[in-house]
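Long-time lurker, first post. I've been practising inverse folding by hand and with some scripts of my own, and I keep getting stuck on stretches where the structure tokens seem ambiguous. Below is the full token string for one chain I'm working on. Before anyone asks, I'm not after the true native sequence, just a reasonable design that respects the backbone. If someone could post their per-position residues I'd love to compare against what I wrote down in my notebook.
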């Protein structure tokens, strides 16, 4: 009771609050906390009062976005950036940070319609390229070394090929057949170790995902495909990245797993007794990362990449991939942007084969 009485006496003094009293108009003391710059959201600022906050907000960190893009770089740096943006192919642009997928396509389409970029400020007229994105892109063009070093360490042989096979056997393979299954077709690409396309085609499978599941109908379609697949040292079957969490895709996942199992069984018959496995799985996401086609955990289309490979094969002396003339003629109009049938399985089978050899060589 004595403590309570004296506490009240201390709190209430002459009709005013004594212990916690503050004169009118005074500001409460601010406890240590972290604030973020509301303009750029980059800086974590420790502050104990409004004076510190005001001085920080008036600093040049918040003025970055008000500066023109051209004023951020020297004339020499602007020349390097514009040179790449005005001359690089879609594939080369996709190697720049944040330019994967649709952004690289938009840049090429914009300069085709409007001519080359005359200054950095004009780049933000390209769809999906705003101020902050452009800054990251420009910096990545000027300082690309760190990104390339990181990318090399992302993918390891043991992680993208199953079951495990002696690396020397894989490196000595004269040719492989890369196989990709879709919802209504199976595509394959036969590539030599020198990245020359020996065969590249697909076959429709009319029993796939049609009404009630019939194992015999699936077997007939897949057996027909296997009978047309050429001989090779290894057969590499794509391993899809579908998750059980996506319950709506469960029928598709069951379909793909069924086709995968039948391909392993039928192609495995070509294996000699006591020999290493000839049928392998390769992760779809590993191929996507190798070609820069991943957006988060989602793989985007590889159509543009394949079209560029075909163009380079016809125009360059030492292309990344060599196509025979008849296949260039056959598929020159097969991969159209915006079309319903863009040949995704064909593209994916080729990219998987190229990634297989290129990852082995790293």
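-- Answer (accepted) --
I ran through it position by position. Result:
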């Amino acid at each position: 009771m004595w403590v309570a009485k004296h506490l009240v006496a201390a709190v209430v003094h002459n009709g005013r609050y004594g212990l916690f009293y503050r004169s009118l108009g005074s500001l409460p003391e601010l406890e240590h906390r972290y604030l973020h710059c509301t303009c750029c959201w980059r800086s974590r600022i420790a502050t104990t009062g409004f004076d510190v906050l005001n001085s920080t907000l008036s600093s040049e960190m918040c003025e970055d976005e008000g500066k023109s893009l051209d004023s951020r770089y020297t004339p020499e740096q602007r020349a390097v950036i514009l040179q790449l943006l005005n001359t690089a192919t879609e594939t080369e642009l996709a190697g720049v940070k944040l330019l994967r997928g649709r952004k690289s396509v938009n840049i090429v389409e914009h300069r085709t319609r409007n001519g080359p970029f005359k200054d950095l400020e004009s780049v933000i007229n390209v769809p999906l390229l705003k101020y902050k994105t452009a800054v990251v892109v420009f910096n990545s063009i000027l300082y690309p070394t760190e990104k390339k070093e990181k990318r090399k360490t992302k993918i390891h042989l043991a992680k993208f090929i199953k079951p495990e096979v002696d690396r020397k056997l894989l490196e000595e393979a004269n040719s492989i057949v890369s196989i990709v299954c879709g919802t209504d077709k199976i595509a394959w690409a036969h590539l030599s170790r020198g990245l020359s396309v020996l065969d590249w085609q697909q076959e429709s499978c009319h029993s796939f995902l049609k009404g009630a599941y019939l194992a015999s109908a699936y077997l007939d379609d897949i057996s027909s495909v296997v009978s047309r697949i050429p001989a090779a040292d290894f057969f590499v079957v794509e391993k899809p990245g579908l998750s059980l969490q996506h319950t709506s895709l469960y029928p598709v996942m069951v379909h793909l797993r069924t086709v995968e199992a039948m391909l392993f069984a039928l192609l495995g018959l070509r294996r000699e007794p006591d020999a290493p496995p000839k049928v392998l799985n390769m992760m779809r996401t590993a191929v996507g990362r190798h070609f820069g086609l991943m957006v988060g955990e989602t793989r985007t289309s590889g159509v543009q990449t394949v079209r560029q490979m075909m163009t380079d094969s016809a125009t360059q002396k030492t292309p990344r991939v060599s196509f025979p003339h008849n296949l260039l003629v056959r598929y020159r109009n097969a991969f159209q942007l915006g079309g319903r049938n863009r040949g995704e399985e064909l593209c994916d089978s080729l990219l998987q084969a190229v990634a297989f050899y290129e990852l082995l060589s790293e």
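A couple of notes from the structure itself: The first strand starts at residue 12 and ends at 13. Residues 2-65 form one domain. Happy to go over any region you disagree with.
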